[in-house]
Description:
The chain is an alpha+beta fold. The protein has one domain (6-115): Arc Repressor Mutant, subunit A (Orthogonal Bundle). The chain has six helices and three strands, in the order ααβαββααα. It has helices at residues 6-18, 28-39, 52-63, 91-99, 108-115, 118-121, and strands at 44-46, 67-75, 81-89. It has a three-stranded antiparallel β-sheet with strand order 1-3-2, with helices on one face. The longest helix is centred in the N-terminal third of the chain and has 13 residues, at 6-18.
Amino acid sequence: xxxxxxxxxxRAIERTLVAHGKIPLAEARPAARMVLGYFGLExxxxxxxxxxxxxxxxxxxxxxxxxxxxxxDATVSRGKTWRIHxxxxxxxxxxxxxxxxxxxxxxxxxxxxxxxxxxxxxxxSDPSPPAGR
Length: 133
């Protein structure tokens, strides 16, 4: 599958982390750049390459289904086993979320409220029922 672009990941972050109030909109593009900086053209990145702050962001993206983590055991000299943790981009999910409509999921409620006319929001100051009732 082709590499994820910065724009695709930024949109996916806007429609997940930003829409759920976990990060401000201004952090979406820098977060996408940071993630792609680790992955480059690869599909996986070793966990031990991440700073603790960046690892926290990776966990947030995992909660939103944009990344996943895996581990494998490797036998090294003298029969010792090391557990290797790494992160994977969920490219199909990133593309699905990034391309889903023009309105982020968090803005659906706002669009419903905006579609209601001004008259519906006016409170009546006259307690008497309308004429004809």
